[in-house]
Amino acid sequence: MENRWLALKPDETLTTPLYLQLSRKLADAINAGWWQADEALPSERTFSEELGISRVTARKAMDVLLEQGLIRRRQGSGTFITPRLEQPLSRLTGFTEQLRQRGFVPSSVWLERGVFAPSNEEVIKLGLSPTSQVSRLKRQRLADGVVMAIEMTTLPVAYLPEPQQVGTSLYAHLDANGHSVVRALQHIRAVNASGDIATLAGIRPGEAMLLITRIGFNAENIAIELTDTYCRNDYYDFVAELRR
Amino acid sequence: MENRWLALKPDETLTTPLYLQLSRKLADAINAGWWQADEALPSERTFSEELGISRVTARKAMDVLLEQGLIRRRQGSGTFITPRLEQPLSRLTGFTEQLRQRGFVPSSVWLERGVFAPSNEEVIKLGLSPTSQVSRLKRQRLADGVVMAIEMTTLPVAYLPEPQQVGTSLYAHLDANGHSVVRALQHIRAVNASGDIATLAGIRPGEAMLLITRIGFNAENIAIELTDTYCRNDYYDFVAELRR
DNA sequence: GAACGTTAATACCACATTAATACCACGTCA
DNA sequence: TGACGTGGTATTAATGTGGTATTAACGTTC
């Protein structure tokens, strides 16, 4: 049996822990597309035998990728590659956690939080009556003190009566109040940063940004969330996997 | 014992489950036209006897094809080939097919077609030797006569020896020559249009565009295609549906 | 030097899949 | 209508997968 995974073998002579070396090499391999979405990785035992390390070490390396959401485990079955497109969703839910795992210090600055009359676009996309009200959240998303994105969210006031009480995670707040977003439709476009967005994002006006427009639906398939996220192109990079 | 289905026999010595081996070989046989539409396949018992496996194993292999919609079962009667037109649509399609489905008339203007020495980036991403050669295609993509995108594709020369002979659809050409792209990884970023790209796309320099970088893999999971597509933001809109 | 956390190993547990046997239910046709 | 061939399903043993408790060796800290 040929040894296909030799490139992943950690170097015993280095001071870096074996499991960390392996987890990094594995992450690179996954990002390079060695395996496809939902495909099973080699088993922990395979890695331990082929790379000359113990099974628990191989397992611990995979623990890191598990926390990052790159892979998933099923007892008795195997370890599988997480489909790529799910990551943007979990990123928006767990912005804080995701960045922390990558060694950044995450934070956000509130720019606006309150109840307003809806705009025309919001009335249409959320299916509201023009006399109803919406809660609006606007904030800067930071990593290590650098602005990565500007995020503007609108919900019908019924789903978020007290926008002031939202902590760092809107999704956690919604979950706790029984209004989970279960499905989302994302439109990704490129736009030139307008003057005020550029100022908030800390870039020059006119620079290209990714604009992600999101409509979130609850379990009853009712649109309850509308979010525009302006992402700095030097920090964001969306990955999608396509199959026949 | 001479039997017609010996080519389908799974290899007991491999670690791949027997039923998976069989289901793949069966799928190949169906696509190769071994049976006609609505024709009955050999029975589960026939397979199990001729291939030296249990009936449930043969059945399980056929379960996979059933899920893919390749075959249909009728209790008491038999298992039948699904007519091609009812088979599920492929999700990985090229520019040409996508636009045609939306009712546009796609066309393209060749800007470059030939064989070149690879760049550093191409050597790494395609896993080439620096002395090898690549075929390169560069073209404007039009819909109803309007430029929508500028596309630059690179393939190892082995997979596209004669780039001059590519028609409007690269994917159709590759399919016809047995080098189908089965899976692709796409990175989506926002960029400001450079001078020459802007000229080709018919927009002003500095305008935001979507840059889609794609790595295409063949059935053996080897990277065979590298494509950069610069999309006009006023025509292109990348949509994704996410679920929890 | 003692206490502690990290690292990496061994050994065993729980669960899922695989692939077999045996039997059930439906269709076809003499 | 009954015999036979078809797909449908329950059960089971073996194998392979992830899950975890325990331990030994090594740093770091006090």
From TrEMBL, chains A, B:
PROSITE patterns: HTH_GNTR (PS50949). Residues 16-84 form the HTH gntR-type domain. It holds the Pfam family GntR. Signal peptide: none annotated. Keywords: DNA-binding, Transcription, Transcription regulation. Gene3D superfamilies: Chorismate lyase-like, Winged helix-like DNA-binding domain superfamily/Winged helix DNA-binding domain. It comes from Chromobacterium aquaticum. This is GntR family transcriptional regulator. It comes from the Bacteria.
